[in-house]
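Hi R.,

Here's the input for the adenosine-5'-triphosphate complex you asked about:
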Amino acid sequence: MIKYGELSTKKANRNFFINTLYHNVLDKLNGLEVNVYKDRARMYIEFLDNDLDDILNRIGKVFGIHEYDVAYICKSDIDSIKKCVLDACKEKDFNTFKSIVKRSDKSFPIHSSEMNNVIGGLLLKNIPNISVDVHNPDLFVNVEIRENNSLVYFNKYRGAGGYPVGTQKSALLMLSGGIDSPVAGYLALKRGVVLDAVYFEAVPHTSLEAREKVINLSRKLLEYTPKINLHVVNFTKIQEEIYKNCKDDYVITIMRRMMYRIMERLCVKYDTKAIVNGESIGQVASQTLDSMMCINSVTNYPVIRPVACLDKLEIIDISKKIDTYDISILPYEDCCTVFVPKHPVINPKMDTCIYEENKFNYDELINEAVDNINTIKIVKEEDYSSLL
Ligand code: ATP
Ligand code: MG
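And here is the predicted structure with adenosine-5'-triphosphate in place:
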């Protein structure tokens, strides 16, 4: 049983939210024998016993779910509920319990507190050597009495939270091989944003392994969204021109301005509404507020920086949780790390940027890069192996 959580506050959009979540759940459970149905308050998945662990794992990665429970379902009459509670509890190993009845269907004739006594009495009479403990029981026996059916469940699982992916429009994630950007992508998906990723590579200065790493990171993000494409930008010529023509301490700033210009063009090309990246205030020279202002000024698109205010250790915690950390720390160089000046400017001046970057015809090179995007459709690991 799935509880929707935060989306229940969005009254006008409720059906849209629930339908989006429903499709995401179906997508996530693809390949399993399940029956999924929903009403305004809950979604239900009927499944085969053997698939339980797999389903719990998959559902834990679907955004828009606040809580989920493994529930036994029965008709909403007193005899069915009693039988269901007893059967379910007989499978459990416990010494103490507490019954928590929630009567959502107010037409059900027995009030919650009285129903708690009924359930308590039933269990004490039929299961030997158990007692009630209202403070610290081994087992919480949750009974939810609803109009169409009633549910009995024990453990509550905390869902991934956020909004269902697809309840916001699309954005483009700047995905490098580092630690921060996959975390930024995960956090944007959590708000319901549909994402495609963009990776800037500078072959032959960057290796194919570096690209493979970004593909693997994208595949990790695919666990939280029904689909993701990776757009690979050939950044070699632009980068070489920058290093050939521009002042050493400005090369990173200018490189990032070029990236943002390309990102804006790709937002137009793919009809996406925002740029998402893994910048974090003060982390490196190009992420001071002065640098951000100077770099950001080349685009009018919103730039969302989900990890802007997190410490590196906090970002690392999330990257471990979403299992991207071990991939991110692989040592392949990406285009930002290939040519790093000794003293990158931390308070770049706009005039200097404009002067320096006008030393070559970047418009033409940007057009060429945008026209020659290589788009990789990311597929799940198991599907990928079957393609080989
Ligand atoms: P990460 O920030 O992902 O750990 P990083 O620290 O090496 O990688 P930074 O130099 O901090 O990257 O760059 C800041 C952000 O710019 C990245 O989080 C990412 O969103 C974007 N970015 C940097 N390099 C690339 C690239 N080669 N392709 C796509 N996006 C990039
Ligand atoms: Mg970073």
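One thing worth noting: The longest strand covers residues 150-161.

Cheers,
M.
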